[in-house]
Amino acid sequence: MQPYTSPVRASAHIADFGIDTITLAGPLEAKLAAARAGGFSQIMLAARDIVGHPQGMEAAVAAVRASGLRVTGFQVLRDFEGLSGHLHDYKVDIAKQMIAMASALGARVLLACSSTSPHASGERATLVRDLRKLALLALPHGIRVAYEALSWGRHVNEVDAAWSIVEEADFPNLGLGVDSYHIFATDTPLAVLEDIDPAKIFLVQLADFMWQQTRTPEERIETARHFRVFPGEGVHSQALATLVRRLDALGYRGDYSFEVFNDDYQQLPLPYVAARAHASALWLAEEVLRRGVPLPGAPRLRAAA
């Protein structure tokens, strides 16, 4: 990917790509404005941006709606599955609140990450039961649950394992969240994607990082939370391009969100970071997926073979 130097261009051909508020510094309104100025039409929201708003949650919801940005999804519900007794009841209450916030924001996807809790059971029937329960809680709100395998998850840490549980749960609004970082961190072969129903992929999050391997869970956590970069900026650019092409060839037609935890970006001006994100989206849309700017009313071009 070439460094971004030109003014932001029309965003029609990057409509499937969005940025995550986690990537940006500052108050919610500034993040929303930066995303729009950077050429994006959608944004992935983090709960802390909403509940941490100085004027309260209602003001945060109003700011999101006034921005005109489509909400890609809402994150993140952690450590939900595999618990029992009072711990399970506690997490059910948390899930209900997360679902209510997602609904208020107009988010149609809630991201749930595989559990890292030492108190969570790895018994498959329990995991399946709990994810069904979560999806059932979200169903009346019209919200889909995207279950994502964290690369340091206690029992589920690879995308094919997450898919196996989602497939067995077999609930209409329960699907998969695919995160490129966790795939590369665990060296998961991309061939496993061939066994996944693309209609059950509800969200794809994209990020690269600056070194080839993260051998231990501790290294994966440290890299994930501090050293991610935008697609095309790290050493996994070719693998990431292959991942996106493969998902497109499988028939995935949903959203891609840039989830880039980066300490450097947290202390740089918002327009600079948003411009880097826009450059990444252009690279993916024009060079990787070979999409052009569609004419009004014309069908969008798909990826080249």
Automatic annotation (TrEMBL):
InterPro entries: IolE/XylAMocC-like, Xyl_isomerase-like_sf, Xyl_isomerase-like_TIM-brl. This is Sugar phosphate isomerase/epimerase. Keywords: Isomerase. It comes from the Bacteria. Signal peptide: none annotated. Pfam families: AP_endonuc_2 (PF01261). GO terms for molecular function: isomerase activity. Residues 33-269 form the Xylose isomerase-like TIM barrel domain.
